[in-house]
Amino acid sequence: MIKSCRICSADFELTDSDLAFLKKVSPVIGGKCFEIPPPTLCYECRLRRRMAWRNDNHLYERKCDFSGKKLISTFRPDAGVKVYDKEIWWGDQWDPLDYSRDYDFSRPFFEQFADLLKVVPNAHTAVVQGENNLYTNYNLANNNCYLCFAGNYLEDSLYCYNAENSRNCVDCLFVYDCELCYQGVQLNGCYNLKYSLNSSNCSDSWFLEDCEGVRDSFMCANLRQKQYCILNKQYPKEEYFAKLAEYRLETNDGLSHARDLWAAERLKFPKRQLHNSSVENCVGEYINQSKNCFDCYVIQAGGEDLKHVFNGFPDFKDSMDCAYSGEKAALMYETMACGASCQGICFSNICFINDSNILYSNFVTGSKNCFGCSNLKNQEYCILNKKYSKSEYEELLPKIIEHMKTTGEWGEYLDPKCSPFGYNETLAAQYFPLEKEEALEKGFNWSDFKAPFPTVAKVIPANQDLPDIDDVAGEIKDWALECEISGRPFKIVKEELDFYRKYKLAVPRKHPDFRHIERLQIRNGFRLFSRNCDQCRQEIDTTYSPDAPEIVYCDKCYFAEVY
To answer: What is the pTM of this model?
Structure first.
């Protein structure tokens, strides 16, 4: 079945297996199946709509609406929602059922849901366990981290995103089991790497790409189990270190020259069509130890029977159109940040742990058989946060679904107008940037809130050079630096300066948000293209567009080149 997206007009295909999955995941209420209709949006527009509900890395000062305590929150002060300190939110000092309301069949569901969202308190951040993580969000069991987001079991790190089981890492994106990495993107099991991409089990090296088991090397790509290499040429140990010293990486000029040189040199090495590992019948990017995954992006071990999944956690199965979801979850459709042993979740944002049969809800945990609920804990048979008996629930919910069919809401994800975030605050803006007018035209919110910048002793202009790291004054921690790209001021914290000094790294001149966007752009995207292998000319699926400057090989030609 070919359909046209009602927002962008792009054609998209729905296969027989897609329709079978929708029937499989459709809710059964009182013994009757209420079928989910085929989507009206293309995959990218569906993903954008879900991402508009997630603010990872914009933090604001505001007060707890329960205690008056000052907080650092993911909800800006003018967001129009209640926010509680997460310790209070998880406690028993308040009851989400106190905000319940009856369903009004004279109004669309999304209007009623938006009203509920405005009054039910939210936890100020999605941070669980760990210590000293004031300026973080979407983290589990992190310790001593600063401006780190969407990562778990991370220690003593700064400016990281999706870093897992790692420590002492700075400015990294999607790194796993790593230590002492700087400006790393998509690394696994690496130690002391700088400015490296798509590599695993490498150490003590700079500017690596698609390398495995490489040590003490510089500006190398596609190497396996090598040491003392520069631009893929191997040297005796002493000669390697002598040549490496010639690059003067401890100086600002030397590092800048090396970065520019590698940007040109890396294009001379062939790239693998897709960066997948130990997969069976999979098409997508960064899929690991999984099978039967189509058009998926970042799937960790154990993924199975997935389609259109963006960032699936371990053992995620039998699901479609999900983002940041998984970990022993199954039968999920159109979800954002739902997982941890959840099943039967549809059209919902943040189902935390052990949830089942949840529809059209926002942030529920330990609950089942709920519809249209927000910030609910350990409940069952609730609609708009109102508790019902099983029989009452099964009598009312079918009527609501029929009502939603008449309003055109049934089968659509949560209306982005209900989101407490402006489009420009969310994950959607990182992957699908829009100007304000275009975002509003497409039905998204927008934030014009400008947080006041802390008072500083002085601001260093973007055009003013800084000395090499050994000569940088300690007072820089009391100053602000102007971003050389955006002009936005940003600060250097003590732990950050200590890291740069210890490892002889230049103080960055770009705002942390801009550095994050640059790392996202370096990494392969989630759109699949058809192009020809630059070696054998076979047609291949790849995340490198046909007009991209990289040389791209099919797997057969790539591995023949590497091995």
So the answer is: 0.94
